[in-house]
Amino acid sequence: MIVKTKPDHISWEDLARCQWQSHESNRSTGVNMQCADFTAEELRAAVKEGVTLVALDENDTLAGMLSVVFKDVNRWWHKGTGAYICYVAVTPDYKGKGVYRALSNKAEEIIQSKGVIVEYLNTHIKNEAALKAYEKDGYQKVRFSPGSGSDYYSVEMAKWLGVKGKSQTLCNLMYIATEIAVKILYKPGKRRRF
C-alpha cells in the first residue's frame, strides 16, 4: 500500500465515490454520514486549505483517503493550532487490511513536521467501527456534540502527538458532561433551545 498526497490522476470524483462506497455499510444500518453525499466539488471545497492523502494498492487502485486541515482550536482540551482529520474513507474491498493505519501514519508525519501537537476528528455516535478504530489508534473521546447534519449526535476525539495529553479520567468526565448538556439542549431534527 502506497500513501501519498492526492496525485493528479486521482480525481475529486474518484474521492467522492470513495466516500460513498466507504459509508455503504453505515447506510445499511441507518448511520447516514453527511460526507458520504458530498459531490466532488463539495469535497474539494471542504478540504481546499488542507492536505488530502490517498492510499493506492500495487495496481494504483484507490483504496482509501484521509484529509488533514489545520485549524485554530479553542476547546477545553486544546488551545492553538490543531490538525483536523476528516473525510476518512476506506473502500469496502480494503477494509481490515491496514489502509486506515497507513493513512493515519502518513498524516501524523505531516502533522508533526508542522510542529502541531494535537489531532482531532469527529464521527457519528453510532459509527461503531470508526469509533473502535480511532480508540485503538490512541484517540480519546473529548466532547459529545450535535452532528454536522440535523439528525444525529457526534463524538469529538483528540490525540496528542509526542506530548502528554489530557488524562483519560478528565476526558471521560468532560465527555459525559457535554453529553448530558447536549442532550438537554439539542434534540436531533429539532432546533436548539438556546
Question: Which strand order do you get reading across the main beta sheet?
Answer: 1-2-3-4-5-7-6
Strand content: 25-35%
Mean pLDDT: 89
> How many strands appear in the DSSP assignment?
7
Main beta sheet: 7 strands, mixed
Distance between the termini: 48 Å
Q: Total number of helical segments?
A: 6
Q: What is the 3D form?
A: globular
Helix content: 25-40%
Order of helices and strands: EHHHEEEHEHEEH
Note the quaternary state here: single chain
Poorly predicted parts: none
Instruction: Please compute the radius of gyration using only Cα atoms.
Output: 17 Å
Structural class: alpha+beta
Summarize the model shown.
This protein has 194 residues and is of the alpha+beta class.
Structural summary, described in words:
Helix content is 34%, strand content 30%. With 194 residues, it is α+β, with helices and mostly antiparallel strands. A hairpin with a 5-residue loop joins strand 2 (51-56) and strand 3 (62-75). Helix 1 (12-22) packs across helix 3. The longest helix has 18 residues, at 168-185. It is globular and about 45 Å long.
